[in-house]
Design brief:
Low-confidence stretches: 73-81
Protein name: Nitronate monooxygenase
Helix content: 40-55%
Mean pLDDT: 92
Number of strands: 11
Structural class: alpha/beta
InterPro entries: Aldolase_TIM, NMO
Oligomer: single chain
Strand order of the largest sheet: 1-2-3-4-5-6-8-9
GO molecular function, one term: nitronate monooxygenase activity
CATH architecture: Alpha-Beta Barrel
CATH class: Alpha Beta
Number of domains: 1
CATH superfamily: Aldolase class I
Pfam families: NMO
Radius of gyration: 20 Å
Shape: globular
Order of helices and strands: HEHEHEHHHEHEHEEHEHEHEEHHH
Largest sheet: 8 strands, parallel, barrel
Number of helices: 14
Keywords: Flavoprotein, FMN, Monooxygenase, Oxidoreductase
CATH topology: TIM Barrel
Length: 367
Amino acid sequence: MRTPLCDTLGIEHPIVGFTPSEHVAAAISRAGGLGVLGCVRFNDADDLDAVLDWMDANTGGKPYGVDVVMPAKIPTEGAAVDLAELIPPEHREFVHRTLDALGVPELPADEQQREGVLGWLHSVARSHVDVALRHPVRLIANALGSPPVDVIEQAHGHDVLVAALAGKAEHAVRHVDNGVDIVVAQGHEAGGHTGEIASMVLVPEVVDAVGDRAPVLAAGGIGSGRQVAAALALGASGAWMGSYWLATTEYQQLPGNAVTQQALLAAGSSDTVRSRIYTGKPARLLKTRWTDAWAEPGAPDPLPMPLQNILVSEAHQRIMRAADPSVVSMPVGQIVGRMNQVRPVADVMADLLAELDATINRLDGLR
């Protein structure tokens, strides 16, 4: 199955896969899609540069992309310690009290505690762009909408396409007006940052609004060839998939991810919650004892981005080390209900494409 998007991105199949794992991203690209590496976990530009060197050597010459986070209307500059001073003491007390109640142990004395993931800061995201443009990336995506116009122009100057996520048709129009090349229409059921409109409604609205000016990728609730076919039927040029790659063999190569997979494999499609506790903006997460604690009476309201991330950063470190699936803190979409086994990326891609072809053939037979 090919769409014009394949020629635009230089890929074989109209499937773009977002992932925080370079191992997964490279495997998606090798399988004929476009692997997109999430950069937010990289506080240090040199670390990102080294990982992109690895991507260059392990994608088999196939194209890949990166995803950055450029929030626009929050306190974005300054050292992490300065931002940390803006966090109310009662929020810190709640986090520590909750972790103790959940039985999450303290970090070892010799393990460095991070004061937030700096990748959420605008200035650090810009450094991610600078690093990425030193590599043969094909796409830079911004998870929080349009990047600044100068960043879009910077990417275009390197012949790199720019994508932006949209939760409303008016967001998509603004993105394209700003120079964005590809719009990702991300529905309410998706993992991570999401809006209020479900994919079945959102995708055709976005296609009608900007489809004559830019390709539209459908995101949210896609984990089978039938769902990719549905995205194409709604007018999308391809699928943007994130959550589904969390249940792959390659994802296990990042520390702590095997425990995360245990939690994901046990979950059903109703076992997610949309909350601001992960970053300060509404994001769909796996429902666990950690998310339940934030929903109890007396829990504080989450802080705005990036303060919420700074607040819970150490908590996420402790949760990961605890190796307890019942307290995992992980963005994931409602498609988690289809994530029932761990398989290599190549096998997942092959099954997606086989079912996509079968679905289109079945529909063609109805005429």
